[in-house]
Amino acid sequence: MKVTIIGAGNVGATVAECVARKDMVDEIVLVDIVEGLPQGKALDMQEAAPIHGYDTRIIGTNDYRDTEGSDICVITAGSPRKPGMSRDDLLATNARIVRSVTEQFVKGSPNAILIVVSNPLDVMTYVAYKTSGFPSHRVMGMAGVLDTARFRTFIALELGVSVRDVQALLMGGHGDSMVPLPRYATVSGVPITQLLPKEKIEAIVERTKFGGGEIVKLMGTSAWYAPGAAAAEMVEAIVKDSKRVLPCAAYVNGEYGLKDLFIGVPVRLGRNGVEEIIEVELNEEERKLLEASAQHVRKGIEDLERIEATAG
Ligand SMILES: NC(=O)C1=CN([C@@H]2O[C@H](COP(=O)(O)OP(=O)(O)OC[C@H]3O[C@@H](n4cnc5c(N)ncnc54)[C@H](O)[C@@H]3O)[C@@H](O)[C@H]2O)C=CC1
Ligand SMILES: O=C([O-])CC(=O)C(=O)O
Questions:
Q1: Cβ distance 167 to 183 under 8 Å?
Q2: pLDDT of residue 119
Q3: CA pair distance 152, 117, nearest whole angstrom
Q4: Residue 252: predicted pLDDT
Q5: Are residues 185 and 285 in the same domain?
Q6: pLDDT beneath 70: ranges in the chain
Q7: Which atom of ligand 1 is least distant from the CA of 31?
Q8: 291 alpha carbon to ligand 1 midpoint, in Å?
Q9: What is the number of the ligand closest to the CA of 146?
Q10: Which residues are catalytic?
Q11: What is catalysed by this protein (predicted)?
């Protein structure tokens, strides 16, 4: 198993480290345009192997020939946002980068599975899908695993219980319009609606929706520990063919009444990528929120098309 990670910045390097520490793949290739950066980070991680006890070979490179024959590729190349920016402000800059790295990568790895992380996530996943020409089950975006991890963290902190016993579901685009679903959040099977008052749940939902922005405000750039761990969890589900049910940005073709876009939905993840989109029952209000979120993603795709048409 060979995993390529494009972008050796904060998120990319963290994905590499999390994947290495799981000791589950033969080789990790870290790619960046900056010379020396992926090589240095890869060597540093390789030198940590005797301490952590993994046998994964980690190489850093600026040359796509080193990525040939990859099974999985995680795309983290692109700018992160700064305070005051929305993820959508990265649209044009990151679309150029995601298109360029996808083009270069797929030539040598035509059978790989792509996991996009770059923002704005749902539109960048669409860009990678269109550029790669891959079937949709082999292209997905990472957001829901991160957003539900935040949701679960805040629930566990509020209730004073272990995060391990908190399960949660969240759908929609990776932005302010994401749709946390408290009805489907449980502590060891007990719905949180039985454990917390409405106002507390609403506060947790709001904090989750703006969880990325909370960190940007604190640090001046965006998060990487939880995003890196989240992408590595998706890599693990694919490598081990474990059929995890995780929220991912997947291509919808009629599911939830949505078509021709990537958006966060629960999927079964295995060796073939997105093996199934699971359709859970939504009430009227949840359906409306999901539709509004999909509208936002659609607008992102249209905005990008307009910007690129104007730029020629
Ligand atoms: N989907 C999600 O939930 C999350 C998405 N993100 C997004 O991930 C992206 C990366 O974030 P960070 O790692 O914090 O940024 P960073 O600035 O630390 O790293 C980005 C890296 O991409 C590299 N890069 C730029 N153009 C490239 C190209 N053409 N080819 C190869 N490498 C290239 C840069 O040299 C840099 O090392 C951002 O767009 C950010 O918004 C970040 C956190 C969570
Ligand atoms: O907030 C950002 O820009 C990065 C991101 O997507 C997240 O941490 O959720």
A1: no
A2: 98
A3: 20
A4: 98
A5: yes
A6: none
A7: 31
A8: 28
A9: 1
A10: 174
A11: (S)-malate + NAD(+) = oxaloacetate + NADH + H(+)
Distance 40 CA to ligand 2 centre (A): 25
| Cα–Cα nearest to 204, from 263, 265, 156 | 156
- So what's the pLDDT on residue 149? 98
Give the other-Cβ count within 10 Å of 245's Cβ: 13
- Tokens 């990859």 locate to 70
Please tell me if the CB atom of residue 87 comes closer than 6 angstroms to any atom of ligand 2. yes
Q: Ligand 2 within 6 A of 227 CB?
A: yes
Q: Are residues 97 and 181 in the same domain?
A: no
Residue whose CA lies nearest to ligand 2 atom number 5: 212
143 touches ligand 1 (CB under 6 Å): yes
What is the C-alpha to C-alpha distance for residues 113 and 139, in angstroms, rounded to an integer?
6
Q: pLDDT per residue over 168-202, tens digit each?
A: 999 999 999 999 999 999 999 999 999 999 999 99
In a domain, 87, yes or no: yes
ipTM above 0.95, yes or no: yes
pTM: 0.98
Identify the residue whose C-alpha is closest to ligand 1 atom 24. Answer: 77
- Alpha-carbon distance 181 to 160, whole Å? 20
Ligand 2 pocket: which of 119, 121, 207, 221 to mutate (most atoms within 8 A of CB): 119
Structural domain including 230 reads 144-303
Domain containing residue 202: CATH number: 3.90.110.10
